[in-house]
From TrEMBL:
<feature type="binding site">
    <location>
        <position position="111"/>
    </location>
    <ligand>
        <name>Fe cation</name>
    </ligand>
</feature>
<dbReference type="InterPro" id="IPR000905">
    <property type="entry name" value="Gcp-like_dom"/>
</dbReference>
<feature type="binding site">
    <location>
        <position position="180"/>
    </location>
    <ligand>
        <name>substrate</name>
    </ligand>
</feature>
<keyword id="KW-0408">Iron</keyword>
<keyword id="KW-0819">tRNA processing</keyword>
<feature type="binding site">
    <location>
        <position position="184"/>
    </location>
    <ligand>
        <name>substrate</name>
    </ligand>
</feature>
<dbReference type="GO" id="GO:0061711">
    <property type="term" value="F:tRNA N(6)-L-threonylcarbamoyladenine synthase activity"/>
</dbReference>
<feature type="binding site">
    <location>
        <begin position="134"/>
        <end position="138"/>
    </location>
    <ligand>
        <name>substrate</name>
    </ligand>
</feature>
<feature type="binding site">
    <location>
        <position position="296"/>
    </location>
    <ligand>
        <name>Fe cation</name>
    </ligand>
</feature>
<feature type="binding site">
    <location>
        <position position="167"/>
    </location>
    <ligand>
        <name>substrate</name>
    </ligand>
</feature>
<dbReference type="Pfam" id="PF00814">
    <property type="entry name" value="TsaD"/>
</dbReference>
<comment type="similarity">
    <text>Belongs to the KAE1 / TsaD family.</text>
</comment>
<keyword id="KW-0963">Cytoplasm</keyword>
<dbReference type="GO" id="GO:0005506">
    <property type="term" value="F:iron ion binding"/>
</dbReference>
<dbReference type="GO" id="GO:0002949">
    <property type="term" value="P:tRNA threonylcarbamoyladenosine modification"/>
</dbReference>
<protein>
    <recommendedName>
        <fullName>tRNA N6-adenosine threonylcarbamoyltransferase</fullName>
        <ecNumber>2.3.1.234</ecNumber>
    </recommendedName>
</protein>
<feature type="binding site">
    <location>
        <position position="115"/>
    </location>
    <ligand>
        <name>Fe cation</name>
    </ligand>
</feature>
Length: 328
């Protein structure tokens, strides 16, 4: 059997077919970078309109590509939150209609659980208990996952997420969207010559990235001679040092078997390397998503849906813009 995953929580329209082992039979993701680039962020009304245009073609394409009919589907899994309400509604109402038309059960899925399960795609195995760090565009949090289903939040950000600060710094340095990969590339070419603050590095599990971003803004004004490459390298070094310190603290205090790093920023080669070192030092397995599936996609949503089936938990198809990590 296959699960059809549908993801429309933010600015990516995505559908995927995933089997129980995590093999992705087909996936199609349409991004909206060009639509939102000039606004400096996602413009909600335009996002829902773009989802509406893309969603049925995207689903049709994955079904065709995998040669699958509705009869081959075990379930449909669709993101119910967190996310933009208008964007969520497009995926949810599409899933509801298909569920009724095809006679296939539909499950409302927590997008954050989707990110966490992205490490299981294409055969990735996670031993529990695990410490999970989710570093994405909308979230920066660290949690303990005891049995693949139960999450305990350890800490989150007081202000900006890491991904958001990557995107804002990218803008300051004149890079286009998406900002993360552009910063990574520039950082690789530069040297961390500037000592930026490491906000809250030595304090518990909370994060704060808006001060770091402001500090970059100040330096861009007062030291225009610093190259974008060196500025990027300095910024990335500060971010990663904070993230690695928090992960290390959780490994010491929670003594997990695995360290799971997910979300868009988990595509960063610098972060992957830093976390590999931390995991190695503490003798735990490092679980990372395939780079292409670190950012939003429907394969991770389909993967997470298998857990809901196993648990017999079937959340409804009502959008939950602020759905917390601990909820299904
Ligand atoms: P959330 O899941 O919290 O609702 P989101 O779904 O919008 O937020 P993701 O798609 O998981 O977030 O991640 C997007 C973020 O990841 C962006 O801020 C982007 O800059 C960042 N990102 C993407 N690729 C990279 C990379 N290679 N290095 C660093 N950051 C990256
Ligand atoms: Fe996401």
């Amino acid at each position: 059997g296959l699960i059809l995953g549908i993801e429309t929580s933010c600015d990516d329209t995505s559908a995927a077919l995933v089997d129980r082992s995590g093999h992705v039979a087909a996936i199609r993701t349409v991004s909206q970078f060009e639509i939102h680039d000039s606004f400096g962020g996602v413009y909600p009304e335009l996002a829902s309109r773009a989802h509406l245009e893309a969603i049925l073609p995207v689903i049709g394409e994955v079904m065709d590509e995998a040669g699958v009919t509705p009869r081959d589907l075990t379930a449909i899994g669709v993101t119910r939150g967190p996310g933009l309400i208008g964007s969520l509604l497009v995926g949810l109402s599409t899933a509801e209609a298909l569920s009724m038309g095809w006679g296939v059960p539909a499950y409302g899925v927590n997008h954050l659980r989707g990110h966490i399960r992205s490490v299981a795609l294409e055969g990735g195995v996670t031993d529990h208990p695990a410490v999970v760090m989710l570093v994405s565009g909308g979230h920066t949090l660290i949690a303990e996952v005891t049995d693949a289903w139960t999450c305990r939040l350890l800490g989150t950000t007081r202000d900006d997420s890491v991904g958001e600060s990557y995107d804002k710094v990218a803008r300051m340095l004149g890079f286009g969207m998406p900002g993360g990969p552009a910063i990574d590339r520039a950082a690789k070419a530069g040297t961390a010559t500037l000592r930026l603050p490491r906000p809250m590095k030595n304090e518990g599990y909370e994060f704060s990235f808006s001060g770091l971003k402001s500090s970059v803004a100040r330096h861009v004004e007062t030291h225009p001679e610093i190259s974008p490459e060196d500025m990027s390298a300095s910024f990335v070094a500060a971010c990663i040092e904070v993230l690695a310190a928090k992960a290390e603290r959780a490994l010491v205090e929670c003594r997990p078997k695995s360290l799971v790093i997910v979300g868009g920023v988990a595509a960063s080669p610098q972060l992957r390397a830093a976390m590999a070192e931390v995991a190695d030092r503490h003798g735990v397995a490092l679980c990372l998503p395939p780079v292409t599936w670190a950012t939003d996609n429907a394969a991770m949503i389909a993967m997470a849906t298998w857990d809901y089936l196993d648990r017999g938990v079937q959340p409804d198809l009502v959008p939950k813009p602020n759905l917390p990590l601990e909820m299904p």
